[in-house]
Amino acid sequence: MADDLDRLLDEVERRLCHRRGGGGPEQPAAAKEGRSAKGLMSAGSSEEDLDDIIDEICNDSSFTKTPPKLKSNSASLTPERNSVVVQARGKRCCPVYLGGSLSPSGIGTNISKRACDQLRCTACDFRVSLFNDYVWDQSCDYLFFRNNMPELSKLRAKMIKKKGARAYACQCSWRSIDELTDLQTEQQLRWVCGKHGE
User: pTM of this prediction?
Assistant: First the structure.
């Protein structure tokens, strides 16, 4: 076990020195100071010894301690604000709610019940469009949505104005919702939260 660990540490040091421009045949840092992983392991194998070795490697002044720079779309973002953006990106609603136009939109949770505005259909792999203050006409059918999504000008033919409602549709399913509803109660819909951006 100690030999395997020694070989692994030597390989890591060689690769690290090679990346930092050390290139030539150099002695590893531990060998320069008269230490080796084998010697440290034989002195007393315990988790504390391993922790000490790891801490020593992490605290070595030869390693650069500058954090990697985050890529930003905007130069005006400060690093503190940028880290918040990274945390918010990619979150999903759990559970997913549908709601009327009076319901708040955003990332829905059990505590913060919000209608998801980033729905995606897993049946047709299409983004779910939503239209505030409209409901779908009773005569809507599968072929209407298959042929007309996502062109609003064609969809308006079967949209009815209704204050407080919201019309949802993808290429294979559609719903008119008046109040906040958990998507799990709509078993026939195969819609999921498609992740919220910034």
Answer: 0.55
